[in-house]
Design a protein that fits this description.
Elements (H helix, E strand, L loop, with lengths): L5 E3 L5 E12 L2 E9 L5 E13 L6 E12 L3 H19 L19
Antiparallel strand pairs: 1-2, 2-3, 3-4, 4-5
Length: about 110
């Protein structure tokens, strides 16, 4: 395993990234990673990174605000069902959810391992 597939966590241990997908959406970037914990269990890590500008317009300070969600296998079914319900609600209220023109931007909900 190369160090490219490892990420240092706050506890000082390495977390192996087994799968990764990036979704760019305007000022936000979503990172969807499948990782393995200390108990050798797979889990999903979803990180939202939002670009923030502060200071004067001539010389703005750039920073990134990050939020993380950790989703474990035992919750995949409930989470997938909730997302499908939410997508269905949005589609029925405001028309179809736009499809991505590129496979790299599409979010697929195949959460079985």
């Amino acid at each position: 395993m190369t160090t490219d597939n490892k990420q240092q966590t706050a506890e000082g241990r390495d977390s192996e990234i087994l799968f990764s997908r990036t979704v760019k959406a305007g000022q936000r970037i979503y990172y969807i990673d499948v990782k393995r914990n200390r108990k050798d269990e797979l889990y999903l890590s979803i990180t939202e990174s939002k670009k923030m500008l502060s200071g004067p317009q001539e010389m703005p300070q750039v920073s990134y605000e990050k939020h993380k969600i950790f989703l474990f296998r035992e919750d995949f079914g409930k989470f997938e069902e909730a997302l499908r319900d939410a997508f269905g609600f949005v589609s029925s209220e405001g028309g179809d959810v736009p499809e991505s023109g590129e496979d790299g931007d599409a979010i697929k909900l195949d959460l079985e391992f």
